[in-house]
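Task: sequence design from structure.
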């Protein structure tokens, strides 16, 4: 059974930093990519950042230059360093992994709350 366990969410003041971490277990096949998505109240879930097993990264325009994603293929982990946080970053952040065995499958973590406020 695939599990994604997230950690590192919480409350931070505007301009502050947080680091989110996610560890995947029970993977059968290979990991194509890992990443982070977020969902604010009343909004759809959106991409934040992804990283492929080859190290290619992709960021949403709203976080470019502020967030950095990194991954460890050997440990099946992914982290998201978030700097210069602002209230618009407040959301539930979800870890995602895309795996391939016979076909592509997406798995999601349970989500971790990030709140940016003064």
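Answer:
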């Amino acid at each position: 059974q695939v599990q994604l366990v997230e950690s590192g969410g919480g409350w931070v003041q505007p301009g502050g930093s947080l680091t989110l971490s996610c560890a995947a277990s029970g993977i059968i096949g290979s990991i194509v990519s890992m990443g982070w998505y977020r969902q604010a109240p009343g909004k759809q879930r959106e991409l934040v950042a992804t990283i492929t097993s080859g190290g290619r990264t992709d960021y949403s325009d709203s976080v470019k230059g502020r967030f950095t994603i990194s991954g460890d293929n050997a440990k099946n982990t992914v982290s998201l360093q978030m700097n210069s946080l602002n209230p618009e970053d407040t959301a539930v952040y979800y870890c995602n992994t895309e795996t391939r065995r016979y076909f592509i499958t997406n798995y999601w973590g349970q989500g971790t709350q990030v709140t940016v406020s003064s």
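The chain has a mean pLDDT of 96.
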